[in-house]
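During the second half of the funding period, the structural biology subgroup turned its attention to how the target accommodates small molecules. The most pressing case was adenosine-5'-triphosphate, which had performed well in the primary screen but for which no bound structure existed. We therefore specified the complex as follows and requested a full 3D prediction, including the ligand pose.
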Amino acid sequence: MYNAFFGFTQNPFNMSPDPSFLFRSPHHEEALANLIYGVQSRKGFIVLTGEVGTGKTTMLECLRDFLNAQQIAFASLFNSRLTPAQFFELLAYDFDLRCDRASKTQVLLALNGLLIDRSNANRTTVLILDEAHNFEWDVLEEVRLLGNLENRRGKLVQIVLAGQPELDRKLEQPEYRQLKQRIALRCNLRSLTPQETVSYINARMARAGLQNQNILSPELVHEIHFRAQGIPRLINAICDNLLLTAFAMESKSATLEMLNEVAADMRLDYPGQHPFRPDPTFPDHRIRHSRLP
Ligand SMILES: Nc1ncnc2c1ncn2[C@@H]1O[C@H](COP(=O)(O)OP(=O)(O)OP(=O)(O)O)[C@@H](O)[C@H]1O
Ligand SMILES: [Mg+2]
């Protein structure tokens, strides 16, 4: 809506997990490197955790791009509210197994055949499970058993489990100890630091066609970081609403007043919700001074 007004060729703060907008913070970089390394070296189970909106699904999208480029076969399930029977059925669809997909035995036999053939050809096969914190114990138990399939070359299928921190807590419970013990690699995504948020916002705007943006001042970006707590999805939502507000007011730059309005509309919750927070890394406090009583 506001793209032409600000000079964007596409929406800079789209909410979809689009790898072409990937911002490589050190954590994202490390997580992606770990996922790729874990899969390539056939580590077995790899777990990626992170708070809501920190970029897990985006990382999985990047991993899928990598797997496609390397012609590594994979299946990925995003619907975690599944019974074991539905799990096997979806697996059969995703791996395109020619069998009675409603029969667990048939699916397992076909899958086993596929995995052994691929392993004999020295090819890697990957199963990606997003939102894994929602999987019930009986489905995770089936996942664990799949992860047990191996031959002398190593694990037949590399399994990536991604989920919110509840996944870590789940894996700490005694009934999951067998699965926990099999996890070869763990990676964690954290929220962005203030400096990373600056780079994140600038990078997204540049990717959308606007180099050296001056719609959001450094002070305002710092305030956005604070209100979003460095969570990329929240940063996107705030910036998108902010640009829309500025556009509606025919202003080429956003202001703290606009941010306050957006934050109130979004019912944003952030610690303190205090108007004045000096920050030594941002020496120019004009905006905050203007708000002091
Ligand atoms: N490193 C990144 N580079 C670019 N955009 C990112 C990055 N990390 C997250 N985002 C953006 O933040 C939003 C949320 O990311 P994503 O959906 O991957 O989070 P998530 O961790 O899977 O969230 P949830 O826990 O709700 O599933 C998306 O719009 C995505 O584009
Ligand atoms: Mg996700």
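Two results from this model are relevant to the next phase. Confidence is low (pLDDT under 50) at residues 283-293. The domain at 192-268 is CATH 1.10.8.60 (Helicase, Ruva Protein; domain 3).
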